[in-house]
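Hey team,

Filing this mostly as a record. A colleague (T.K.) asked me to run one chain through the structure pipeline before their review meeting, and I want the input and output archived in the tracker in case anyone asks later how it was produced. No errors, nothing strange. Just documentation.

Input sequence:
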Amino acid sequence: MSPRWTAEEIPDQRGRKAIVTGANSGLGLETARELARHGATVVLACRDTAKGARAQSAIEAESANAELELAALDLADLASVESFAGAFRSSHDGLDLLINNAGVMAPPRRETKDGFELQLGTNHLGHFALTARLLDAMEGRGDARVVTVSSNAHKMGRINFDDLQSERSYFRWTAYAQSKLADLSFALELDRRLRAAGRQTKSVAAHPGYAATNLQTAAPPTLDRLIGRLGNVLMAQSARMGALPILYAATHPDMEGGAYVGPDGIGEFRGHPHVASPSSAARDEAVAARLWTVSEELTGMPFELATAAG
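Output structure:
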């Protein structure tokens, strides 16, 4: 592995089809930009399609031959997830890369349209349901991968099955850490089940370190937004650098299923991609299996792999 891997090392992606959730800004935009620049057909899956259209125009201005599609996807609405997945499958013959990137961070307590706590519902359950609906479209494709974006914050999280939706007690950062731990637990459990079912699709995870995006300044309360802006200026690396672990996980030829990629600097806050170590909580297979079952029940979108994987 090169210690200084950059986007210039991304292999030719021509002929590959990718979906990037939250592609209108930040990490999603940078990920979509580089995949398109290297030849992939990229679906920009965005809740706000007006912002998505601006992102599409920005990418096309840089890469005249970029093959892009814009589609509406609200991960906080399972009906939207179902509609998006159905439309994609009816108009495409398969999928090579699913980048589960979109998310919210540390807002006041809110609920999704389906009544889930917003961070768990968007960051984890929405992507869980999306993957369930698209996974079969990846079967038989060469080197198909699901890349789920987690966070360093997963190390502070725990899955509180007694109050999963934070109805009795809500602290925004605790809920965020739980959602990011859920993301990583899901990615690792998905890979275990894919292998047990004899599937060739890989599930990998990545985190951006501390990257300057609108997550720090969009949803949190005013004081947190001010601190976030200051941190973005003083400590954060760029969104383009933050996207490198995602791109590495999605495209590196030697990537193994179940890997977790993050920056190689101190504390994994900054740097170039390397294979990182999930927390012990993320590696807890019993918790991951329970979370999987609960997630299927909450979303009503079971994976057919569940039976095959036992």
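Quick notes for T.K.: The beta strands are 17-21, 41-46, 67-72, 97-100, 145-149, 202-206, 260-263, 273-275. Residues 249 and 255 are 6 Å apart (CA to CA).
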